[in-house]
Amino acid sequence: MNLAIDVGSCGFRAGVQTRPDVLNEPSVVAYGQAPGPLVGQRAEQMIGRHPGHIRIAFPVEGSIVRDFEALVDVFKYMIATLLPGRFRKRFDVVLAHPSHQSQVDRKAFDEAAKAAGARRVRFVEAVLAAARGAGLPIDQPVGSLIVDLGGGATQVALISLGGVVERRTLNFGGRAIDQELVDRVQRRYAFAIGLATAERLKRMACQHVGQAKADAAAVSAHAAGAGTGGDTGADGAPDAGAAARPDAAHVAEQVSEVAAADLHRGEDTAGPATFTVRGRNLATGLPDSLAVPMTFVQESLEQYADQVLGLVRETMEACPPELVGDVMDRGIVLVGGGAQMASVLETLRRRIDVPVTADPEPQTCVIRGLLATGS
Description:
Layout: E1 2-7, E2 11-16, E3 22-26, E4 29-31, E5 38-39, H1 41-44, E6 55-57, E7 60-61, E8 64-65, H2 68-82, E9 92-97, H3 103-115, E10 121-125, H4 126-133, E11 144-149, E12 154-160, E13 163-170, H5 174-189, E14 191-192, H6 195-227, H7 248-253, H8 257-260, E15 263-265, E16 273-281, E17 286-293, H9 294-317, H10 321-330, E18 332-335, H11 342-351, E19 356-358, H12 365-373
Parallel strand pairs: 1-9, 9-10, 11-18, 18-19
Antiparallel strand pairs: 1-2, 2-3, 4-5, 4-6, 7-8, 11-12, 12-13, 14-16, 15-16, 16-17
Helix pairs in contact: 2-3, 4-12, 5-6, 9-11
């Protein structure tokens, strides 16, 4: 039996090649609680709220193994969760690895998997697995450009005939954006927030951008329908869906419920959106709340999009002209957790004269590709 595993900076995913279900949890381990270490979601809930005797460990950062013990415990957790007892001593592991990972770190992954009970470990390059999971024709003689927006690193790769023709890597990802927001809020507003709050701030900003675009599209579609006599069908009969179609004012008033509790506009409804966060006022040392303008968050996301754009440009400049033509025709596919950031996606679409799409389930592209690899 083969166990497919993808361990990243922000999350780990695992699955058995004979089953469709996938384990997907945060890459964090908590030590100091009885009866043993807590892994995944239960450990993530303790971040920023734990007493001194509890240690929070992140096993991987980018391609580097930061805590070998925590990595072993993550493997043990996945094995105990996915494999029945009789298979726990008779299984192999198919493991994704970043292309820029050193031999030392790759050996650490191998030893951690074997320490958890694996008989053999086979490595598959993560970007190839992600491309396969996204449904790209990586084994054919055509170029496919994939952008992996990970939590610890960002990678752009051009793939053809089952191999990577050209790649560029940036050791900066979603977690670094969170840390940057923490630092910028502290410098600009003398206000302290945690990484979890910064991540929520980032998510709310992206949701707001995505919702605004959806609302604008709905209003445009409604206006187009009204301008062409939307109350009747093609044969002049009343349109049965006209009564259910919302008017423009109703569509414009809809806001994402996920961010509604923390998204506020000022007294002037035409003013910029702000997000209210809670933390510590460094001037008083007391708990407080702060209204952060959406434009403030967008600055960090725009800077990250600029870096991604630079990687894409460098990769394309080094590619054969025939493969560049393939990319012009087929477009660019975004995978990884960062592909869910609507703001980054829209910036890339606006600034690249090539179609840019995000996989519907970008976080699981690598594990789906590993599961599709076969034994």
